[in-house]
Amino acid sequence: MAHPLFEGQGNYFRRVLVLILGLSIMAFAIAMSKKAFLGTSPISCIPATLTDCFPEWGLTLGDWTIVFNLVLVGLQVCILRRDFRPVQVLQIPLAIFLGKMTDISMDYLLFFMNADNYILQWIFCILACAILGLGVMIEIRAKLLVVPGDGLVIAMASRIRKLDFRKLKLLVDSSMVIIAAVISLYSVSHLTGAREGSIFAAIAVSNFLWFYRNHLGKYVDRFLGDEESARASRNRDRPPCRLSADNRC
Hints:
mainly alpha; 9 helices
């Protein structure tokens, strides 16, 4: 695959802690976006829609998140076939942890949240996107595993050479929003799980991720002992070199 699931750099135990922290923050953001009632991020809009459309099945948002991510891992197997490495199965416990933390956030951490007007819904939606971007940045910085949604995009990128990761990511996210909208309209005749907030999240989360990467990524790298990445972050922050009369910066 184009992106390794394991990196042998830095302190492994610290990387596990950072990965758990990133996933926990992501789960909290998913729960907040669900309670904002404007639609969740693209990767979560299908589980959120299924939760609202089929309450009689008795599955929570976290349960549907786990089921959906298992489907994504299965799609990776179908795409990669023999190239699917055994270590990639570890995406499954990641998905289970993400789902369980989402339910904990819904039931215990955000039990008080009540977005009872449209302005408040947008405030919570924007805040959820900002928190999700932070969680994704931390999860990526751990350089251990990727969540099944990103794993699917990476698998597709290894087979579709004409499109880069960003274009495939946009394609996958758009497809998930459309599928969620179709399920919602067919089942309950109105949009739920995928709404205007989902479109906003598709744009905003990547921008928040870029901001956190440039301003906070170096501190995470320093904690992990990843000096090479920390130096790269410092070089990005350094102003352009201006040559003096003797050609020195």
